[in-house]
């Protein structure tokens, strides 16, 4: 059929297309009499193969059977293969996701023990100075004189030692801001810490009241005539449920009117119920409470100072300088972290029992997925005693260094503590430094034992934190307050450590270089000024401290 022509007809027909050219004579001679292509000089197999291909090409419908032929072939092949042995696909864990520190310790130990290049690290560690000079405490006290009180504030401090400390200092600040009278805070008993201690068991109550006498009224109890209105039952007093980190304006707008109406209010719980950022007058009261008014009770202070003296006496060769390490490897900490170490089945059973005992179903809720490898990579696993030892030896502290270990009961201590004691035989704990008779009044009270650790760590030349929490944060701030603004604290990069501890190819020199860089970074971060949303209890500059000249000696106030 010819294509449609839109031009008017001229009476002539469209010429036919030229004929197709003849096939090549070479190909034409190659045809057989039957008209099929049969290349000469081929073997029988080749001719048969060529014949089949030519049929498939000429009869394209045959390709419809190709899937059936493929499936048939696969079935025949699968039927001839034995599946008794299933091929194993090896999956390599992500770097840093598996606990391999024991293998690394075994590899590095010969070189580590043979390394004699370390200098006196404990005397040369802190080199960084603040560019504007040192800082000095400048928490001023008022000269006295109060208007009439707007009422009484009763708070319940929950948590462990330093979480309770947060509650106390914030309560002082709120009471002063609202011109209220603060009742000595009540310590809430918690199933985790299991410590029934009262305020006076841990802190010097009389000193606390007298230190604040010109700034905030503090009393032991609410007057009888007021409590009679509530049948002498504190649970009948109106309780504010305040959101965490509420601004001071909330207390002025919501709490103060109720206080004026009732003359007494209760706030429970009270930990972290005040914003980190507040007006200077409120921050000053926080500083005054934390660094000046809170002093440990006489029994704790006496034994704590004795432990400090004993550590300094043992480290007299180094000028009385020692390292303190806050090690969080107690059973509840290991369980809460959900990290996996090398304890196998026994460790797994212990951790599952500890989680259920302490948090009752929190970790077994439907849909909750726990990824121990991801936790380790993110630096959230507590450092083991072995890892702490490797890190400190890499930072240049030799085995003669004296170390005070602040910790609760270490999980599986006989096994986990052995490598650390091999690396640092001069390691001491409060149980090693004090007699059973000296520790008897404190042994069944976790907060009192923590207060002893706090005191010894406060006066060490170097403080090493291995896990987050209120204990190291308060200590860093208190050390800054005492030591011219420098925390003198090693804060390891745990994400980096996880990768280094998982590297089987790293040598001692390379590992040591990485650790010295980490130590230097902690030195440079020793001086830090509070930024918005930072805690004043960790960063006391500039709210609690003032600039001092470089040549002026910083004279710290008496420690708590």
Automatic annotation (TrEMBL):
Keywords: Carbohydrate metabolism, Fucose metabolism, Glycosyltransferase, Membrane, Transferase, Transmembrane, Transmembrane helix. Residues 25-34 have a biased composition (Basic residues). This is O-fucosyltransferase family protein. The chain crosses the membrane at residues 62-83. GO terms for molecular function: glycosyltransferase activity. InterPro entries: FucosylTrfase_pln (IPR024709), GDP-Fuc_O-FucTrfase (IPR019378). The keyword Transmembrane applies. Pfam families: O-FucT. Residues 1-40 are annotated as: Disordered. Belongs to the glycosyltransferase GT106 family. One of its GO terms (biological process) is fucose metabolic process. It comes from Trema orientale (Charcoal tree).
